[in-house]
Amino acid sequence: MYSMLEILRITSFSFRDLIDIALVAFISYRILLLIKGTRGVQMMIGIITLLLFFWVTRYYNLAAVEWLLSNILTYLFFAVIVLYQTELRMVLTRIGVFPFWGRQRHVQTPGGIEEIVQTASSLAFQKTGLLIIFEREIGLRNYAEGGITIDAVITYDLLMTIFFHNTPLHDGAVIVRKNRIVAAGCFLPLTIDPYLSQELGTRHRAAIGITEETDAVAVVVSEETGTISVAIDGKISRNLSGDELRNTLADALTGRKISEEINLKEQERQGAA
After folding, report:
1. Are residues 131 and 85 in the same domain?
2. Sign of the Cα pseudo-torsion (134, 135, 140, 146, in order)
3. Entry pTM
4. Contact at 8 Å (CB) between 188 and 173?
5. Contact by Cβ (8 Å): 34, 18
6. pLDDT tens for each residue of 27-72
7. How far apart are CA 222 and CA 162, in angstroms?
8. Could you tell me if 208 and 90 lie in one domain?
9. Contact of 218 with 131, CB cutoff 8 Å
10. Which range has the top average pLDDT, 28-32, 222-226, 261-265?
11. 103-147 pLDDT, tens digit each
12. Helix (H) or strand (E) holding 153
């Protein structure tokens, strides 16, 4: 067996080798960013630990342990696919939607955001539950088809009617695409994160779950406490004010704060004058 020094010894080094190393490092870095904050991190640490332990057993010629690890590693690939299919699907989907060099943003008009902020603030005051999902680059058609088709422009009155107590659509999620409500009464996957606070109910877990599997943005109003929350990339921000909700949505869906939109319109108005 080659010693570590022989493995690391470089006999020749060219510009092509430098490009090769840089590409491997860049791709590895982007993949690590994609799985950051998921169970995939612990999975990767476990696999690396097993491989290092396997190398140690071979180096010291521990035949029995080496035989055991060889059989385990043979089926490890299939076990990873079964146990971590959610994380693998998320990583592959985001690689396909977001190129390695950055993230695109799905356009949402400030008018639609303002209607949702007003609705969320009113329902929070009334302690009425709300769950709205904004579609971005990853389509939510399979979830929308499981609900009731609406296909209407976002308005305060329509949203208040949908989430009114004891209506058939009250407990489901509303899916928004661009500036239109696509469907209501939709059911979403729940997160299985064991470290979440026990205070979070089904709506919050559904909001986190859909943002773990897609790039969607979820707005939640708690029926118990009346607090407003936003979930993005599997992370939830709680106890937001109306202004904080407005700016969070504007940043996530348009790339600019509402205050920047106001300043831009003011500059255009002055320029036209």
Report:
1. no
2. positive
3. 0.64
4. yes
5. no
6. 888 777 766 655 566 677 777 888 888 888 888 888 888 788 777 7
7. 16
8. no
9. yes
10. 222-226
11. 444 445 556 899 999 999 999 999 999 999 999 888 888 889 889
12. strand 148-153
Around Cβ 38, how many Cβ atoms within 10 Å? 18
Kindly report the number of other CB atoms within 10 A of residue 4's CB atom. Answer: 8
**Is residue 257 scored above 70 in pLDDT?**
no
222/251 same-domain check: yes
User: Is there a contact between 255 and 105 (Cβ–Cβ < 8 Å)?
Assistant: yes
> Within this chain, do residues 45 and 139 fall inside the same structural domain, yes or no?
no
So what's the pLDDT on residue 270?
Answer: 52
Across the range 6-13, mean pLDDT stands at 58
Residues sharing a CB contact under 8 Å with residue 173, sequence separation 6 or more, in sequence order = 131, 132, 133, 143, 147, 184, 185, 186, 187, 188, 206, 210, 218
Residues 135, 106: contact at Cβ < 8 Å? yes
Q: Which of 68, 97, 126 is the last residue of a domain?
A: 97
H or E stretch at 108: none
Q: How far apart are CA 188 and CA 214, in angstroms?
A: 11
Token pair for residue 56?
């140690």
| Tokens at 241, concatenated | 């004010």
Backbone angles phi, psi at 179, to 5 degrees: -110, 25
The answer on 8 and 123 residing in a single domain is no
Is the model's pLDDT at 164 over the cut of 70? yes
Residues 37 and 128 grouped into a single domain: no
**Domain span at residue 125?**
110-265
